[in-house]
Amino acid sequence: MPCMVQSAAHRRRVLAGIGAVLLVPMWPASVRAQPVIAELQAGGARIELQFAEGFDAALRQRATRWVERALVAIVGYFGRFPLTEVELLVQPVAGAGVRHGTAFGHPAPYVRLRVGTDTTTAQFDDDWVMVHEFVHLAVPRVPRRQSWLQEGLATYVEGIARVRAGQLDAAAMWHGLQRDMPQGQPQAGDAGLDHTPTWGRTYWGGALFSLLADVQIRRRSGVQRGLEHALRGVLAAGGSYADAWDLPRILAVGDAAIGQPTLEELYALMKDCPAPIDLAGLWADLGVVARGPTVELRDDAPLAAVRRAIAG
Ligand SMILES: [Zn+2]
């Protein structure tokens, strides 16, 4: 069995996490041959891209371009890459498409991605997983029962970041939000976000919190500030996936950065109580009007300027 090539940072992480007496292979034996490592620089960060055995040169090239596009989107949204250093472990699976991504915080942040060996350039260009995982890196880890904040921000921000980078059509993004956001509404018997760890409330309940925050921050600031400025404030205060913060601290630091109490107010509203939202009214105010398989974005709506400031 050939020894796996590991970076010094990777070794430090493994040893710091489990001690020298128990070296657990990070990958299954089938993919544990020498990975091919590429290094990217973006937004002040060094990104180490490790391809497990099973990627040919052409697929590595397509996948590297995929990561580079996601870096452009994330650096555009946050103004920098959220960490100074991160490793991406890319593993092959059968078939086509980006299958799965997971961000890990311990002992140092890294992201594991599973990619079909038949994935085409068009499928990589369409993918949301890479940007979603990068958004995770920009927010401190929170207790598991409050992962709605992590997943909700990642779910909401990834599309906006891609629209701003010219990688996704704005109408397609708003259509997706309009189609999927009802899954975040409280169901019968649900409590607030902190007490309802279902899939819908975690991903889309958290996304609903994020959208409401973005709209309110822009309304209150005359569209001069948005959710990204609160999140950039958290990053500037040293908060990222490398650290665990309690959730109220994240919101307080974000609010301080934008000079308004929006995140904390919304949290007080939604953490313990179901708080259903009038989505039909919100879309109408934003000028997002369903038109068959897409939406029309109307500039005569009361909050059209807010919508345009978010994306499109
Ligand atoms: Zn996620």
Provide an overview of this structure.
With 312 residues, the chain is α/β, with parallel strands linked by helices. Helices cover 47% and strands 14% of the residues. A five-stranded mixed beta sheet has the order 1-2-3-5-4, covered by helices on one side. A two-stranded antiparallel sheet has the order 6-7. Strand 6 and strand 7 (294-297) form a beta hairpin.
Radius of gyration: 20 Å
Q: List the bound ligands.
A: zinc ion
Catalogue the unreliable spans: 1-8, 10-31
What is the SS-derived class? alpha/beta
Q: Note the overall shape.
A: globular
Q: Work out the helicity level.
A: 40-55%
Mean pLDDT over all positions: 90
Q: Helix count? A: 12
Classify the oligomer. single chain
The counted number of beta strands is 7
Distance between the termini: 53 Å
Give the number of domains. Answer: 2
The largest beta-sheet arranges its strands as 1-2-3-5-4
Describe the largest sheet. Answer: 5 strands, mixed
**Relative strand content:** 5-15%
Helix and strand sequence? HEEHEEEHHHHHHHHHEEH
